[in-house]
Amino acid sequence: MASTVLLGITGCIAAYKAAEIVRGLQKAGLRVKVVMTEHATHFVDPLTFRSLTHEPVAVGLFDDPSDPIHHISLADEADAFLIAPCTANVIAKIAHGIADDLLTTTALACTAPLLIAPAMNVHMYEASATQDNLSLLKSRGVAFVDADEGYLACGYTGKGRLAAVDEIIAATLTLLGESRSGNNDNDACSLRDLTGLSVLVTAGPTQEPIDAVRFLSNYSSGKMGYALAGAACARGASVTLVSGPVSLTPPSGVDVVPVQTGMEMLEACQKFFSRADIAVFSAAVADARPAVAFERKLKKGVAEDAAALSEIKLVPNPDILATLAANKDPRQTVVGFAAETDDLLDNARRKLQCKHADVIVANLVGAGKAFGKDTNQATLVSATEEHILPDMSKVQLAHRIFDFVLQIRN
Ligand code: CTP
């Protein structure tokens, strides 16, 4: 049965964003029940949430005559209590055990994990009282999705804006421990649901030589691709892993084709693609390569070499995923990645279309995210679905990707 998230909505302008939070949680397969403060109902009508959730929306302590102890039944139903947006006032009340309306009474009665996404004016956020209340709640184990900085509805600029909806949903899923149980690692994998299928995986960076000792490349570690190859193999597939240069031990049972450059990766993939039932392009292929790769080492002290080094002319590399997927046949499922620093979902949707992929695994990169790490937080995007996943190990994510692929193929 789906887990239930009790969504508490308090009285501030960001209350309108709670509608998107409801939809995001539902898309992630969760049941959502809503409890609002009376002040929140001035910003958004409870009917909005009743229509989205198909459940009654709880507001007043004594509104439901059939349930005289409504706060207890609400508290007991929750697998997680998310309050988003949460005002300074409600944070203060919860920190001090004040229970003077249905939402705060429910918070006091609720033993499920509590997640708070604050939203308020910057001065209210920075006030010592609020900061002390936040520290007090954190010390008691309450989880927070910290407020963002930016332009606030009150006209001020600073910290206090409700965190991004995607972040709030991912944090809720993490809190619920929605990460796959059972397939936590490949050794524990009892599924053989890819038996009889051929899987092609690309992994790692490519290196594009400048001369005998220098190359252009990127920060990809190859961990995601190796996790995908290992997961597919553990589930019974016959796996070919076309790998750029990485320092990882390949999963046993996988056929590895080592390559260095983007052109070599394309050539290797062209050999295996037509046989693949599922092809997952996780490699971070260099988008361009030097037009000329010198076989000798260019010397800084030699004027002509120094000029060649300072004016390296680049030519674009072919897009391996787009080239191969353009001619895929209907039995094949093609998965690509979108590694983005901005506009994650818009870019992912665009890549899904223009690269002819069936699934795009969208994830944020840069500033300590994704590259080289053992965990990743991704959204799986297909033509009809968007599935926001919590932060999880790359092995777990690999299994979630194959679950999603099988769902599409069936
Ligand atoms: N890809 C590929 N060949 C390339 C570039 C990318 O096969 N020459 C694949 C990647 O393996 C990934 C997807 O395309 O599955 C998207 O890669 P990404 O680096 O996110 O995007 P780019 O296509 O490079 O586009 P941009 O630089 O505009 O983000």
Describe this structure in words.
The chain is α/β, with parallel strands linked by helices. 34% of the residues lie in helices and 22% in strands. It has 15 helices and 21 strands. The protein has an eight-stranded mixed beta sheet with strand order 12-11-8-13-16-17-19-20, sandwiched between helices. A five-stranded parallel beta sheet has the order 2-1-3-4-5, sandwiched between helices. The protein has a two-stranded antiparallel ribbon with strand order 6-7. Helix 1 packs across helix 9, helix 5 packs across helix 8 and helix 10 crosses helix 15. The longest helix has 16 residues. It is elongated and about 80 Å long. The site of cytidine-5'-triphosphate (CTP) has 18 residues, from helix 13 and strand 16.
Which runs of at least 5 residues are low in confidence (pLDDT < 50)? 178-184
Strands side by side in the biggest sheet: 12-11-8-13-16-17-19-20
Shape: elongated
Number of strands: 21
- Fraction of residues in helices? 25-40%
